[in-house]
Design brief:
This protein has 19 helices and no strands. The chain is mainly alpha-helical. The protein has 3 domains: 191 residues, MFS general substrate transporter like domains (Growth Hormone, Chain: A); 55 residues; 250 residues, Growth Hormone, Chain: A (Up-down Bundle), CATH 1.20.1250.20. The chain starts with 11 loop residues before the first helix and ends with a helix.
Length: 513
């Protein structure tokens, strides 16, 4: 019997290449957060309409979500390093275009092109990690660094963006990406290996069109429902997205070289881990929108103070992502997923206690517990996903992981946002001061921000009464959505435990691959 040869260890080139890979991930995450700070200056300088402002905000995420599957498969076929470097060059050029945009239309177009380029980054970098790190524990640590880059980028985005806006014009926030992408283009060819599927066929253009249309329609419908409620346009967009998605899946089953290998979902480790990742993102994004508002509009923190309060959450992700590979040496992958989601559920449950005298401290502690539980799910989960797929399909698997996160985030915002708004409106209706003018009443019932604005226009006693009632209603809504998040993640934990029954570490590792 031939002994199993241990996987080769990574050398200096691979670890240096990992640092280069982490840079575009950091910039990608920063680009998602820094724009929010620049919106007031953009509004003053370019004077976009309300519809144009929405497109400036949303088009980047729309294009990223819509093209992830296509870009992941394209990398498998033309070369993952080649696609990453092409995406980096495009990201740098379109960042310059966005920085010097002189009209809302130009900025919208630049943001759309940034989304196209950004869609190459996550699947290319994650699938390259699969090729560079063959040892299981080294690969898990590398994916932990990969997750950390996104966490650090999200944390640094508001801080660095604030400094740039303090001393320069709004376009300078887009230029942050240029030197990072230039460094990737300079070092990438010598440090990153190339990998492509030599037997892959041509990209199926009808599949690309169906995939993009299905994702864009669904994401648009979810965002529209979260903002304006489940009206006719939202329902039509969602119905169109689901229908196109069904057609896309059917086509993948009938063509020789599918854009998405649906057979991957027949692997229990792959399907269960994607479900765990998606449900965790759904709960996290759904509750996060309430946390950000609670910090500023209920607790009265400034944007900078709110950013500092959220910073421990990001640091928890960093610590948890780096701890996960060490934990995986002693605990099975299935146990890490199950207990990680169980700890995350505890964090959500802690959020239901934020109405006491130490509400801010409880909120910070709850988000840290959530991040410490979720980081191993993201780190080990992504390792299971890319390792479950054959090497030639690693890019497509990585893209599917990111697409599920994008979908789940949008769905979480729509579902939890709608549910929380409904509860807030119901509670405030029953406790709102009498004789409130109709216009102010409508604004106060719409959002907590509307209630703050309405209270500022009223005499002191009436304004204080309205503000107090709104704070109580919004806090109760946050507590309810947090309880829903706890139930959802706890249920996902039990689901994964049921699907991936593997009492021994060796069995879990074999199933994961």
């Amino acid at each position: 019997m031939t002994p199993v040869q241990p996987a080769p260890k990574a050398g200096r080139r691979e670890w240096t290449g990992l640092a280069v890979i982490a840079l575009p991930c950091l910039v990608y995450a920063m680009d998602l957060t820094v724009l929010n700070l620049a919106l007031p200056a953009i509004s003053t300088d370019l004077a976009p309409s309300a519809a144009q402002m929405l497109w400036i905000i949303d088009i980047y995420g729309f294009m990223v979500a819509g093209l992830l599957i296509t870009m992941g498969t394209l990398g498998d076929r033309i070369g993952r390093r080649r696609l990453l470097l092409a995406g980096a060059a495009a990201f740098a050029l379109t960042s310059v275009l966005a920085a010097f945009a002189s009209s809302p239309g130009t900025l919208i177009a630049a943001r759309a092109l940034l989304g196209v380029a950004g869609a190459t980054l996550a699947p290319s970098t994650l699938s390259l990690i699969r090729n560079m790190f063959h040892d299981e524990h080294e690969r898990q640590f590398a994916i932990g660094i990969w997750i950390t880059a996104f966490s650090v980028g999200s944390a640094l985005g508001p801080l660095i963006g604030g400094v740039m806006l303090q001393y320069f014009w709004w376009g300078s926030t887009f230029l942050l990406a240029v030197p990072v992408m230039a460094l990737l283009l300079l070092l990438g060819p010598s440090l990153l290996p190339e990998y492509r599927d030599e037997h892959a066929g041509r990209i199926d253009l009808p599949s690309v069109a169906l995939s993009l249309s299905a994702v864009l329609s669904t994401i648009y419908g979810l965002k529209h429902a979260a903002t304006l409620g489940p009206d006719a346009p939202a329902l039509v967009a969602l119905l169109a997205g689901v229908s196109l998605g069904v057609l896309f899946v059917r086509r993948q089953r009938s063509i020789a070289y599918p854009l998405l290998d649906v057979a991957l979902f027949r692997r229990p480790a792959f399907s269960a881990t994607v479900a765990a990742y998606a449900l965790s993102c759904l709960a996290m994004f759904g509750v996060y929108i309430f946390i950000a508002q609670h910090l500023q509009l209920v607790l009265g923190l400034s944007p900078l103070e709110a950013g500092v309060a959220i910073l421990p959450w990001s640091l928890g992700f960093v610590f948890g992502s780096l701890l996960s590979p060490r934990l995986a040496r002693h605990v099975s992958a299935v146990s890490i997923l199950v207990w990680g989601m169980a700890i995350t559920a505890v964090g959500f449950a802690l959020l239901t206690l934020i109405d006491g005298p130490h509400g801010l401290a409880v909120l910070v502690a709850a988000t840290v517990v959530m991040s410490l539980g979720m980081a191993p799910v993201f780190t080990i989960g992504n390792d299971i996903i890319v390792s479950s797929a054959p090497p030639e399909r690693a890019g497509a698997a990585a893209a599917l992981s990111e697409t599920s996160a994008e979908f789940s985030g949008a769905l979480g915002i729509a579902l939890f946002g709608s549910l929380g708004t409904l509860i807030y409106r119901h509670l405030l209706t029953g406790s709102m001061p009498a004789d409130l003018p109709a216009a102010l009443s409508t604004g106060a019932l719409s959002t907590i921000g509307g209630a703050v604005a309405a209270a500022a226009q009223l005499p002191a006693p009436a304004g204080a009464a309205l503000l107090s009632a709104a704070h109580v209603a919004f806090t109760d809504a946050l507590q309810f959505t947090a309880a829903c998040g706890a139930v959802l993640v706890a249920g996902a934990s039990l689901l994964v435990a049921r699907i991936l029954r593997a009492p021994a570490k060796t069995a879990a590792g074999a199933d994961a691959r």
